[in-house]
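Researcher: We're teaching a course module on how sequence relates to structure. For the next exercise, students receive a sequence and then see the predicted structure as tokens, so they can try to spot secondary structure elements on their own. Here is the exercise chain.
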Amino acid sequence: MKYDCFIIDDEKLLADSTAEYFNLFGVKTAAAYSVYECRDFFREHTAQLLLLDINLGDGSGFELCRELREKTDVPILFISARTSDDDQIIALNIGGDDYIQKPYSLSVLLAKVKVVLKRYGEQGDSAYCDDWLTVDFDTRQVRAGGSPVRLTALEFRLLSYLIRHENKVISKQELFENVWEDKFTGDGTLNVHIRKIREAIERTPGKPEYILTVWGDGYRFCGGRK
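Model: And here is the predicted structure for the students to work with:
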């Protein structure tokens, strides 16, 4: 079964009330209360977004995040009462996409979740496929030359945006506003992410066939769909 949101939090009452609230507003949500239950959930279910606590009864949310990042690139939002800057830095460095402090407002948290789901959600075709590159927008799985490719959540979002605007020149400013949602992201940051994506998907990264630089304007995804 496919869920929009999956909550892993050992505060059962809070997890259940959050899930109930989300379901009430059309965000299909399930909850688990331990590392073991989280692993068990993913044997039969999928989720588009995770809300993950740090302190779990049978383990650490940090370690669970590292484990999950070996298998999935779905957005992970940490929810925790811990206020240390170090905790927030660790959460983001190991693959978390955001850090939300408890106690949180259910309405504000729901709004954040809806924004992330919309940002990562399906738009148009569910997949791109040609004789070399396959990108599944639903499962966020990428294969190049038949081999699986690992991209970070941001790299996948950037690649997906370019693919969905195939053969159109996309300005750097448009990418900053629609992928990062930040008008002030620097060119250097974008260039690094483009380079990493090329290294992952191109036959010859130094002579890209898919992500082409349009000097002075931006980038263009040149596809060859089946």
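Model: If you want an answer key for the exercise: The longest strand covers residues 2-8. Residues 106-120 form the longest helix (15 residues).
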